[in-house]
Task: structure prediction
Amino acid sequence: MSTKQSPAKAISVWQPWAELIVLGLKPVENRSRHLSHRGALLIQASQKYDLNAWQYLQQLPGWTTGQGGTLRLLEKVAQKRMGGLVGAVMMTDSVTESDSPYFGGPIGWEFEKAIRFTKMIPCRGMQGLFVPTVKPAEIYRETMAAIITSGMAALELAAPGLTGESDHVVIRPADESPRGSHLNA
Result:
């Protein structure tokens, strides 16, 4: 089987931040420069892990520590999902100010409609915006599974050859709920 390049764009993000983004809990990613891209964006969880994230997350409301706490579960899941595509979002803006507690600047890439893939798609990451070298059918399958499982809103990813008619796949479930929030350890 040959691997084709999917025209869908991706960014690499350290864990646990990648997991928070695809769960729809972190609506902004801090970067040093603006990005003109708008629309669907795949999230690749890099092989790097931000150990300082836990100190920051403990200060935010809603996160619990201790045995069985939400931070422990997030840590367990994030450590298992490194080195591949873990989900997708819609990138809506590139800003210098944000009310999000996750914004630390200088630039924030804002996201909506997060989708978490049930299974990570192995994929080597790169710096900046990149085109992942994976089979488009894998992206489509995981996007469909995530949408069906969580009732996500529509997301459009470029994936040629899947429909035979178009270079884009638009997936529209009946339920237009804004985001799922479940973790599978």
About this structure: Helices lie at 17-22, 53-58, 70-80, 136-150.
